[in-house]
Amino acid sequence: MHSAGSPACPDCGAPLDGSPRRCPACELPLHGPIAAELWQLDLALNDLRGREAWLLGRRSELLTALRAAGENQPAGAWVGGAQAPVNGPQTGAQGHPATAEQQVGAQGGPGKETAAPGHVAGAHGQVAPKAGEPNQHGWQAGGPGRPGGPGPVGFPGNVPPKREMSPSAVRNLLLGLGGLLLVVAAFVFTIVSWGSVGIGGRAAILVGFTVLTFATPFLLVRRNLKATAETVAILGLALFLLDGYAAYQVWFEPRVDSLPYTAVLFALAAGLFALYGGYAGLSLPVPIAIGLAQFPLIVFVADQTAAHAAGALILTAAFDVAVWTWARRKVALVGLLATWSIGVYIAFFQSTAYPDDLAEAVAYAVILAVAAAEAAFMARGAKKFPLVPVVGGVVAGVFAVRAPFAVVVPFAWVILVAPVAAGVFALVLRGRARNTALVVGALASIGVLAPVLIVLRGPLDWGHGVWSASWGAGAGDHLSRSPWVPGVPDLLLLVLIAVALALVVRQKVVAVLVGAVAVAFVPPVFDLPYPVMIVVLLALAAGVAAVPQPAFARLALGVGVVAVLWGLVSETATLVVLAALALIAAGVAFRTATLRTWAANVAVIHAGGFAVAAWLAADLQPRFLTFVLLAVAAAAAPWRRTEIGAGVLGVAALAVVPDLKMFSLAAAAAGVIAAGVALRKDRGNVGYLATALLLTASWSRLYAEDVTLVEAYTAPFSVVLLVFGWWKARTGSSWRAYGAGLSFTLLPSLVVLYDQPEGWLRPLALGIVALVVLVVGALRRLQAPAVLGGFTLAAVTVHEIAPWVAELVLMVPRWVPMALGGLLLLVVGATYESRIRDVKRVGAAIRDLR
After folding, report:
1. pLDDT tens-place string over residues 125-169
2. Cα–Cα distance between 24 and 90 in angstroms, integer?
3. Angle at CA of residue 624, ends 622 and 627, nearest 5°
4. At a CB cut-off of 8 Å and minimum separation 6, what does 502 contact?
5. pTM of the full structure
6. In the structure, what pLDDT confidence band is assigned to residue 178 with cuts at 50, 70 and 90?
7. Are 340 and 295 in contact (CB under 8 A)?
8. Which residue from 334, 333, 329 is spatially nearest to 283, judged by alpha carbons?
9. Confidence of residue 542 (pLDDT cuts 50, 70, 90)
10. Taking the alpha carbons of 267, 268, 269, 271 in that order, is the dihedral positive or negative?
11. Alpha-carbon dihedral of residues 798, 803, 805, 806, nearest 10 degrees?
12. Which of 600, 593, 583, 588 is closest to 546 using CA atoms?
């Protein structure tokens, strides 16, 4: 750790000794014109930061002095004019304001040395270097934002720390705590000590303390102690409520119910306290009274039904609307949001809890209608966040219409009520309200998602498996065992949504999407024959694909997926669907140039699926499906636009192999196909994939045959591959030249070493070979031999020392490994920066290899 005045590197902050030409930590150059300009910029920035800190500190002191003067002086003390600022600007010898240089002595104390022009004075009066001049160490003390830089002109040492609490905050805290203690004391006295006082004493205590408490704020306001008056007034309100409680306990308890009495007490206290605050000229009583007025109606119906509670909340919200409109009090707005939201929440969910009670539904509908009217009234004058009351009003209005209709209409048709009501609102309203009604209608239609997912998923697993359904059955019968059978209301709702989207949304593909789903609903809803469902889906796919736009092409692909899901339950339907989709995709590729590559690959994938289906329909052996897919991939691979489809079929072929031997053959075939693709000039990187597939094929074959001496099969080929690489690739990437030859032997031997750990010959031979490969790669600066040799040598080393390490760990106490691990973390953390630089150097060295 270096002192605040020692020079530091501007980049990493490391201390500098003398005037080095480079930083010893990060090797940043510290000489030349660029470094000189950076010195000047840092000095200027440091000067500005110091000036800003001193000015902020001085501002805080002056503000504190003004607050103290305002509290201690009577109100008329400021009439004669503004008071001179405390410790204001110093004046010079001629009575003029002193310059910044002349203030150094005044602010910094007597006897301080005055800075020359262009220089700044330090914390103790010393003269800092002129801006743009490096100090004696060659760099300014500290960096930007670091301590030790020069202070501003007139800055007397360090900046005083900013106070965490202002005097007014401390005063309010003390007053609040004092008032709280008095309220608690009064409450304890009323509850506990009341019985020891007679009836006369009780009346005197109640009336005397309450009157005295409410009279005290008037005297405090005259003495300009308004904050104390506010606290005493709140204490008076608490005493008033305690008086009401005591009166109930003595005179009213046998005859009056507690809830109505409490509601009246709250209402009376709110009204009187608001009038008292206005008469006394206090600011807190009115907001507190408004907050207290939120509870009378709610307390009054606390033991009634949920409808009473919701009605009380909405009526309280109406009171808040009136107060907000008249007085613009924020506490009324907060109360409105709380009471309105809770009331609407209760009314909506309770209206859905009684599907057979029309009277309850009408009651909740009235409550929601009043809430909608309140929100509409608030929306007319809303300037900030005008969308909030609009959304609330539309939601409440839609649910107000839904509540009685949900009882009258059949249950299956209830799903239409809220969306239709929202649609009607959208026709009547304008602007934001119209858009909000459309959004609410869309959200209210979310119940249709369940039948939509059922239809799009198809009949699989709903009592039907692959190729198990009858071709002549009805489409509705295929979905009869699903958890949600689509019906006519679902179809009508989809039609309404599609029409609304077509009229509102600019992207017509969204409306087409919903319309396509609605058309797909027709066969299951009316139980049309299963072939009709297949024809409808294929016609939808062809019609949507005919639009030459990417969005419609993606929609056509989605319709094709649905058609495939429906076709899988029948053998004939599967063949027809896959063939038709392949032809549709091929037609799009032939007709639309912008979609040619995308559609061609889709056609290849569907062709591969058709080939698999035809193979299985002919009762041929399923174990050869891998080669059926590879055959289609091989036919598509030579064409540039169908490479992706060929790759997808190749991956699928490798995924369906039944055993390891078949996987070896499939990987070899895929490697050959990839090698053929790599022959093109711009597809040379595919050669890496071909190499990996061929290596995987050979390794998997050796593993499948339980070969223990794999080197007898891999080493000769590795030698040939290495010779070819040396002969053909004297320049260029060493991975392309030697990667395949080295991997062909090193990696299988390493796998066998870990799979069969017995013996010493293979680890020794493999370690020697890996060491030789590593040394040759390092000497010839070849990346592939260096990396593969180093990796293999490290793996062999770990394999050999692992048993020794395990035995050592078991022999030592259990705390030793933890202690060593902690020590290692400490060392790594302490030398983190240097280790990172070492890793970067190693990475750079490896990247520099060929």
Report:
1. 444 444 444 443 344 444 443 444 444 433 344 444 455 455 555
2. 47
3. 140
4. 508, 511, 515
5. 0.58
6. low
7. no
8. 329
9. very high
10. positive
11. 130
12. 588
The one-character DSSP state at 97 is B
Closest CA to 753 of 789, 716, 708, 811: 708
Per-residue confidence (pLDDT) for residue 121, from 0 to 100: 40
**SS3 category, 474:** strand
Residue 630 has a pLDDT of 92
CB count within 10 Å of CB 431 equals 9
For residues 394 and 428, the answer to whether their CB atoms sit within 8 Å is no
Burial class of residue 725 in the structure, from the number of CB atoms within 10 Å of its CB (0-12 exposed, 13-18 middle, 19+ buried): buried
Cα 590 to Cα 597, 634, 644, distances in angstroms: 10, 21, 17
Q: State the alpha helices, DSSP H only, in 301-386.
A: 306-327, 330-352, 358-380
Contacts of 92 (CB under 8 A, 6+ apart): 98, 99, 102
Cα separation, 738 vs 785, in Å, equals: 7
Within 13 Å, how many C-alpha atoms sit on residue 537's CB side? 31
Type of residue numbered 815: W
DSSP state of 680: S
- Distance (Å, whole) CA 22 – CA 818: 40
Of 427, 376, 372, 378, give the one whose Cα is nearest residue 403. 372
Determine the Cα–Cα distance for residues 508 and 544; give it in Å rounded to an integer: 12
Residues 6+ apart with CB under 8 A from 674: 650, 686, 687, 689, 690, 693
Measured between its terminal Cα atoms, the distance across the chain in Å is 43
User: Among 411, 410, 414, 435, which Cα is nearest to 425's?
Assistant: 435
Q: Give the closest residue to 46 by CA, choosing from 54, 56, 34, 57.
A: 54
Task: Return the number of other C-beta atoms located less than 10 Å from residue 599's C-beta.
Answer: 24
Q: Note whether 31 and 19 are within 8 A (CB).
A: no
- Mean pLDDT, range 492-514, rounded to an integer: 86
- What percent helix, strand, coil does the chain show, rounded to 5? 70, 0, 25
Find the angle CA(361)-CA(366)-CA(368) to the nearest 5 degrees. Answer: 90
CA 799, 803, 805: angle at the middle one, nearest 5?
100
HEC states along 186-239? HHHHHHHCHHHCCHHHHHHHHHHHHHHHHHHHHHHHHCCCHHHHHHHHHHHHHH
Instruction: Output the furthest CA–CA distance in the chain (Å, rounded).
Output: 120
What value, to the nearest 5°, has the Cα angle with vertex 39 and ends 34 and 42?
A: 125
Q: Is 831 helix (H, G, I), strand (E, B) or coil?
A: coil
**CB neighbour list of residue 64: distance below 8 Å, 6 or more residues apart:** 163, 166, 167
Per-position DSSP letters for 750-769, written without gaps between them: HHHHHHS---SHHHHHHHHH
Cα–Cα distances in angstroms (integers) from residue 368 to residues 281, 378, 382, 433, 757, in the given order: 39, 15, 21, 17, 77
Under 8 Å between Cβ of 592 and 599: yes
Q: For residues 156 and 108, is the Cβ–Cβ distance under 8 A?
A: yes
Strand partners, 15: 8
Residue of 369, 295, 309 lying closest to 342 (CA atoms): 309
Q: Assign 364 to helix, strand or coil.
A: helix
Helix (H) or strand (E) holding 850: none
